[in-house]
Design a protein that fits this description.
4-stranded antiparallel beta sheet, homodimer, DNA-binding
DNA sequence: TCAAGTTCTTAACAATTGTAAATGCGCAGT
DNA sequence: ACTGCGCATTTACAATTGTTAAGAACTTGA
């Protein structure tokens, strides 16, 4: 079983690739293993790679004026990630992209991707589909942030993303939910008592 | 001055179109004028068109279990909008898409767009770029929701989107900010007193 | 013009979160 | 085994928001 299998399982759902295209792409994908808390993109850096997750969890976070880490998103296996703005716009990243657990990744160089997007229509289609799906999901995240109370958000997360609740430390989860670790702890004890 | 000029001003920034492609596209764009509070996509309906805003403001909103309208996004001139999930996935819309003010629009049929995305690479590129930019913006919205207090969010909105504060009724703004109209009113009086 | 319906504001009270600080738990490195 | 550090929990208090209700201000349509 090739290490590329999970990649094509996802990519194949989004666009059709010929055998030649697949080979051309596989030749440039870079297999990587990284430990927990490893910074893939640092603040002020320009992201030169995007990543596909084979195993493990990552996130990106901002640093606010109180030097707190504000988690913007948590990524799980089968997903692509990078510092979106930095990777596509060649801007300096305003966010840190970091592994949460040890990870196995496939890395894609920006230059390669740009080349492919010009020469392989299926790749542009794939990227469009990823962004489309991610955007739909982002809308549901916003909806949950503006319409649910933190406690309801936690319960909804328990159901829809049990993997996160299981693998992600609570101080990271709480910053992802927009509440303090203290408040998340209170919510947990409240929910535990009366289910 | 053609009614399509604002469209190409935006589209031209995102991808390169030949004269023939532009003509082909213009022939299918549909000019529309609609009054305020006009429903372009209703709950449970499948969106058959996407829209480019020439003039006016629109939004989409969910209906929660208390029958309240939860505004997910507000769109302004120069932007494309529809019920994203419904339009692309041919799903039944879980959100209402509605004008806030009277509007002037260019409508695009889904069938035409799908055809174009297969035959005109620049269109797939354009859609990808729109989703990319919208996704980057969505990330900043999420960041503001999880890291700022409602009052800070209102002040930041005053600076970054004064057009919204000016043209959008406050009960809609408040639902977009994730607070009650009552609370927004309090915030406004607090901000007004001590700037 | 008047009447009816929205929208916005203000008030009082309940509920929840934020803040700060102390405690406990668990894991890593010496 | 011991020490130190990061993480999670608990407590008490302050601050803010949600809720409900009432009234003012503004629109809309007959």
């Amino acid at each position: 079983m090739s290490v590329f299998a999970p990649f094509w399982e996802v990519a194949g759902q989004l666009a059709r690739f010929s055998k030649e295209e697949k080979e051309r792409i596989e030749n440039k994908l870079i297999y990587k293993e990284i430990p927990a808390k490893y910074r893939l993109v640092d603040l002020g850096e320009t992201a030169r790679q995007a990543y596909f997750i084979l195993k493990g969890f990552s996130r990106f976070y901002y640093i606010n004026d109180k030097a707190e880490e504000i988690t913007g998103f948590i990524f799980s296996p089968g997903q692509f990630f990078s510092s979106l703005e930095s990777f596509f716009n060649k801007d300096e990243s305003n966010q840190v992209v970091e592994s949460v657990t040890p990870m196995k990744l496939l890395a894609i160089n920006r230059q390669d991707l740009e080349e492919w997007m010009n020469e392989i229509p299926a790749i542009e289609r794939m990227v469009r589909m990823i962004l489309q799906q991610r955007m739909i999901y982002a809308q549901s995240v916003v909806a949950s942030l503006i319409s649910l109370k933190p406690e309801e958000r936690y319960i909804s997360m328990l159901e829809s993303r049990p993997d996160l609740v299981q693998h992600i430390p609570q101080h990271i989860l709480s910053s992802y939910m927009g509440i303090t670790p203290v408040s998340l702890s209170r919510i947990r004890s409240r929910v535990k008592d009366k289910p």
